Amino acid sequence: MRVAITGGPGVGKTTLVEALARLGFRTVSESARDVIRERLACGLTPRPEAATFAREVLRRDIAKYRAAVAWRGPVFFDRTAVESLAMVHEASSLSDKERDRVLSTCRFHSAALVLPPWRAIYVTDTERDQTFQDAQRIDARIRTCYREAGFSLLDVPSLPVQERAVFVLRSLGIADI
After folding, report:
1. Which domain holds residue 59?
2. CATH number for position 30
3. Phi-psi bin for 128: left (phi > 0), alpha (psi -120 to 50), beta?
4. What gap in Å lies between CA 146 and CA 137, rounded to an integer?
5. DSSP 8-state secondary structure symbol assigned to residue 149
6. 113 strand-pairing partners
7. What is 20-66 written as a DSSP string?
8. What is the CA radius of gyration of the chain?
């Protein structure tokens, strides 16, 4: 089972994914942060122009998905190709054929786990330069792109990270901890 963990910036996705990894589950990191981190390390701006950034994130998301196909048990993804497809669509043209091909090969659990905006934990950093209002707008767009891709949405409550992990595992019927 491959599980999408999503939401706007600064809502605790990476922290939750890291907590699930500490519990022994396989996880996949967010490609956009990887790209930003690599660019900053080279002294570049955090993001190239939008279409280039979106295509690179999509390429990495697909590669990470393919690498995780052979893994047994649940795999938790910090964002997915569903979102990078939406970024590509917003930044340039994306054919229905390309979108459908990616969605048919990158299959996830039917429910995307969404961490809603949470002002109390929101901070910016060198890799996250969006405002809280930007995070709220991004959350709305993410919800739309997952619904349009056929997912149901399951909101993860704003709780301490360990309680969020328990909620996720119980909601998916993976563990009763």
Report:
1. 2-171
2. 3.40.50.300
3. beta
4. 15
5. T
6. 5, 154
7. HHHTT-EEE--HHHHHHHHHHHTT--S---HHHHHHHHHHHHHHHHH
8. 16
Q: Give domain status of residue 76, yes or no.
A: yes
If you count them, how many residues does the chain have? 177
- Under the banding of pLDDT at 50, 70 and 90, the label for residue 126 is low
CB 42 within 8 A of CB 150: no
Inside any domain, residue 163: yes
Within-domain flag for 176: no
3-state secondary structure of 6: strand
Burial class (CB in 10 A: 0-12, 13-18, 19+), 48: middle
Q: What mean pLDDT comes out for the span 15-34?
A: 95
User: Total structural domains in the chain?
Assistant: 1
Tokens 């301490």 sit on residue: 160
Q: Which of 107, 117, 110 is nearest to 173 (CA)?
A: 110
Residue 150 gets the label, from left (phi > 0), alpha (psi -120 to 50) or beta, of: left
Q: Per-residue pLDDT tens for 143-161? A: 999 999 999 999 999 999 9
Q: Could you tell me what percent of the chain has a pLDDT over 90?
A: 71
Residue 177 included in any domain: no
Q: Provide the 8-state DSSP code for 70.
A: T
- Tell me: the pLDDT tens digits for 93-121? 788 898 899 999 999 999 999 999 999 88
